[in-house]
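User: I'm putting together a teaching handout on how multi-component assemblies are represented. Below are the sequence lines for each component of a complex, exactly as they appear in our records. Could you produce the 3D structure of the whole assembly as structure tokens, so the students can see both representations side by side? Please keep the chain order the same as the input.
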Amino acid sequence: MPGTLYGVGCGPGDPEQITIQAWKILQRVPVVAVPQGSQSDTSLAAQIIQPWLPPTTQILRLELAFRLDAQLTEQCWQQAIAQLVVPLQQGLDVAFVCEGDSSFYSTFGMLTRYLPSDIPRRWIPGVCSPCAAAAAVGMPLVQQQERLLVLPALYHLNQLAEACAGAEVVVLLKMARYYRDIWQWLQAQDLLATSYVVEWVGWPQQRIYADLRAYPDLCLSYFSLMVIRSSR
Amino acid sequence: MPGTLYGVGCGPGDPEQITIQAWKILQRVPVVAVPQGSQSDTSLAAQIIQPWLPPTTQILRLELAFRLDAQLTEQCWQQAIAQLVVPLQQGLDVAFVCEGDSSFYSTFGMLTRYLPSDIPRRWIPGVCSPCAAAAAVGMPLVQQQERLLVLPALYHLNQLAEACAGAEVVVLLKMARYYRDIWQWLQAQDLLATSYVVEWVGWPQQRIYADLRAYPDLCLSYFSLMVIRSSR
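Assistant: Of course. Below is the structure of the complete assembly, with chains in the same order as your input.
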């Protein structure tokens, strides 16, 4: 009988924002798999769970980069799967750790696509970054009749106009490199005062920029998100 | 010095889906405030945290109903605030517990609006129900470039058409009473096979209806959500 692969959402950064369910799994499994992306040298998920890991846990580092060349990406993921399958086929349970929630723009979804179908898998939810960001700022993300739209990436400002027309609250992930363009658009729409950015939510280096009127230009890290409120 | 009011997200149902941060606050505060809505006799949030509460914790039950009459609602909330402020003014910390996440369609947002401004407040995030539902079903809620739209309520099927035009993944909260109409619309759009409903996510009575082609009619509880995927 193969072991079970757990996709464990570890919350966005603060080790205490992991669930008891996730914590129990990390105490129990002999192997923890951590993703190594191209964006960072050390896995963020690995840093989040570091305080909770028993010293005997085996760490399996998986390179899960997305390359421009689809074939290279495929090769890279197949290699990671080959590594992951070894302990699972030996009957050992493995926890694959994800930042935030395991079903919210997580690599675990992609990983399970490549996983041989006879390997049982379980998804363990976690706190996702927009919820943690709103909590850090100290206001509701959404309330009552407000619609919420999450845009994982932005290719054109038209998308932002459409998004704000279709939802009272819009969350932009990975917006750091377009910040200045977005700021100008928000200024034209008179939406700066009710919008905010949280950088590194839950981490010691967390920074909050609330009421964006004062910040026409920000040099933000990749791990930043913006919340735009068009209802007041 | 007044005490701090914590808005504690307790996850959608499973007591183990509470964070360590939330758990620590519940261990420490002398008073826990639980909402009593008009939808249920006993507070769901109170049931979620029940296994974690020290026997000495004082429970403060607050009636936080929404009435059709705005003045009655206002009166009801002002009365709850008056109860809540007593221990806070005595310098005691109070945890107000919320199902799911404290910033995601939670009563805590409304409560803080009425709270006297000199009372410090902190938001503690939790696992929100759409993430827990996707985990229960065992698939990504959203991945890669997919946009996510959450509709907290539905007044007309046109809204659903707009929603599905603007996002690859649409989450409908509180859709139980319109299920049959939604089902017929999804059938016409050929979206039944990739849509699912989770009722009572995280609770012992949780039920999953995946691939909705088999369920033209369902008598669902109020605590149900639907995920519609228009990308495959």
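A couple of points students might notice: Chain A has a mean pLDDT of 94. Chain A has two domains: 5-124, 129-229.
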